[in-house]
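Example complex used in Figure S2.
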Amino acid sequence: MRISLVCFLIVCLSCYSCSDKTKEDEKENLPTPTGNGNTGTNTTITYSNFTKKIIDNNCISCHSSAGLNVNPHLETYTQVKTIANNGRLKARVIDEIPTRMPPTGSLPQTVKDTLQLWINQGAVE
Ligand code: HEC
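Predicted assembly (125 residues):
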């Protein structure tokens, strides 16, 4: 029962991502540090050079007063830093627990790696 629901959702979401090619391309074109953002890279990830663009492209349509007004708002460094510090960014976007953010589809692994690196490096501005 549960498994078939999950399969159904996966099928729906893969159709969604095929049909929405432009949005998918946009995600792929996000900046990622050299070396795929894996640990060991010397790139410093800051909110202004990487994270803000990721959040603006993938989260702000829901998590802002101009968008769907879903809490928490993710419009400023302080707001995004809060979910980096309290573990919600990692849980929802990287580990996808209890459910994935954004709800419409996982972020590409390279983008998840960038966010993880940003968190590891202290979520600086
Ligand atoms: C299509 C709308 C939508 C998008 C896009 C979206 N979210 Fe959400 N988000 C929601 C909704 C609705 C909730 C509240 C329900 C829930 O927690 O699942 C939520 C809840 C959250 C929460 C609070 C829940 C918790 O675990 O404390 C965080 C943190 C979050 N989202 C982060 C993000 C991030 C980061 C992104 C972008 C990578 C993102 N969301 C993209 C709709 C969205």
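The pocket of heme C is lined by residues 58-59, 61-63, 68, 70, 72, 83, 88-89, 92-93, 99, 101-104 (CB under 6 Å). The chain has a mean pLDDT of 82.
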